[in-house]
Design brief:
By secondary structure, this protein is an all-alpha fold. It has seven helices and no strands. α1 runs antiparallel to α3 and α6 packs across α7. The longest helix is centred in the C-terminal third of the chain and has 28 residues. The protein is globular, with a radius of gyration of 15 Å. The relative contact order is 0.17.
């Protein structure tokens, strides 16, 4: 029963991240929007790697593809690769201080962002250079708060 209850906490955090991704914001702030879903995927892959992994990362990427109207599989590829790398390094990153985890998150979101921008470039869509750096940077800056909030959710609902 506890595991089922904890699954709801994961689902709610993912839904909140998807909602934050689609909230309208001014054009000047759009380039500085962090990758909310990527942050949630990184957290849950590090916190409970046996429950959250490649398949869920890929499915969330597909949901992002449908939600944003991009090429089907564009975000799925990036999320899957990011989840794979996170699962490979999660034991080393979990023991680091939050600011060093933030640097790791910068690298992970940078890889995800690079893959999605690469697919845009292959399609012939214009690629904004500011978005290439601003999304991973904002994700890194917000990582300590995302980590603390999701850690408290995980402890409160006993997601193990």
């Amino acid at each position: 029963m506890e595991r089922r209850h904890g699954g709801w906490a994961i689902t709610v955090s993912v839904v909140v991240a998807l909602i934050l991704t689609t909230l309208p914001i001014p054009d000047w702030a759009a380039l500085w929007r962090p990758s909310w879903v990527a942050l949630v995927v990184v957290y849950w892959c590090m916190a409970v790697p046996e429950r959250f992994g490649l398949v869920l990362g890929w499915l969330l990427g597909l949901i992002l593809d449908v939600q944003s109207g991009t090429l089907l599989g564009q975000h799925a590829l990036g999320m899957c690769v990011m989840a794979f790398i996170t699962l490979a390094i999660h034991q080393r990153v979990r023991v680091l201080p939050l600011w060093q985890q933030g640097v790791s998150v910068f690298g992970l979101v940078f890889i995800y962002n690079t893959l999605t921008l690469w697919v845009n470039g292959v399609q012939g869509k214009p690629v904004e250079a500011v978005a290439y750096w601003s999304v991973p940077f904002m994700s890194m800056v917000l990582w300590p708060w995302i980590y603390i909030i999701l850690r408290d959710v995980r402890r409160r609902f006993r997601v193990y």
